[in-house]
Sequence to fold (441 residues):
Amino acid sequence: MAYARNVGLHLHWGLIADATSNTATSPLNVLALGAITAVVRNAQVAVGVLFVVSAVLTALWLQALGEQLAPSRALPIIGVGLLLVNPLLLSTVGLEPYLTAALFAGLLRYGAAGRGVAFGVVAGLTVLARPDCVVVVIVVALVLRPGVARAIGAALVVTLPWYVFSWLVLGSALPDTLIIKTGESWSTYDFWNGVLLYLDVYPAPTRLAFLPVVVGVAVLAGLLVLRLSRAWAPWQRAAAAAGLGGVAHYGVYGLLHTAPFHWYYAPLIVGTTLCAAIAAARPSGGFATLRVAAVALLALACIVVDLQHGLPWQRAPISTNWATAAEYQQMGQDLHRIVGTSAVQSPGEIGTLAYYCDCAIVDAFSDRGRITDAIVDRERESDALAALLLRLNYAHLDLSEQPRPVAYHLRYEARLAPSGPDQWPSDNWVDGAGRIVLVPG
Fold:
């Protein structure tokens, strides 16, 4: 929302108003939110508008897919219904997962129809929604086999303008989160086993969020076994494409040793949910009533868990923040009054603070000078090919840029209550109650 506000109201690409940065992992999400913000003049309203538009697009593309593959008319109801109540996906509203889900449905719709140009356009938008979803695009294309040449051409027409602009103007084709977020783990948890952490901290929401993954993977396994003996029917091929796309994304992220941020599991959840939904919606085969009843029961259970967090939510069902949104809002508004035009170092989280403070709050996500050393170090530690790609990506970035000086620091202190001025409560998702303290210098 901070990026979207700056783009929509000031045509400025950055997390804070007076510095250019390139840490928006989803340029399409920011551009869409920014465009809506320019009209409605409010980034929070823009989030709601884009959420609804994404859900409608998902339903329309699944309806078209269902009409083509001949599952029942229930496909958009099952698919969109399960996605809309999933506790993890709902915890990501404002980020790009629901936009990505819509584009995932579009890939299946046009890929199954063999419409290469349309598939390529949606594929390009998918990569702009999340560059790592190129894995999903490739897998779906390999399974559904739309016109490859036309698809590639259309995808390049959609994506190249942004990436050339980003490379020349913003200093890197791919966002800096490539450096910040990869190769990171949380204690004994990385992307492979991160679900176990969420099961420990948020057991009920996590079980319900990943139950469609279990079902989708089981459906996918059955389809792969079936493929050994005979060719897939059209609905089976589409379901397999969805499941394989999600699983492949999970595998690539695991190999990159990415930290287990919960929204990174969205492509896995979306792909396997759509795989299960396509299978559940088919009119033929046994247990049709049982399939529909199972979907309804799962959706009802998700709704019950979603509603247990109050209306409006005080905190999302699955959250990895160090404070609640309300705590960060109060902190940001107070900081705006206290620091004025001075720069302040973030405590380790920045997004909501930057939005509500609307001030010069800095860390690697907003200040390019705080990531240049990491870029140089990563290039030095990488093999020859990876180092070359990094060098190309940052060919137009001034790596001599220094960190911006700050007049204040925000310091997170676990398990300590506020005990004086310029201190705020911090309800950390792991540590519990703590505080964030503003100190000069």
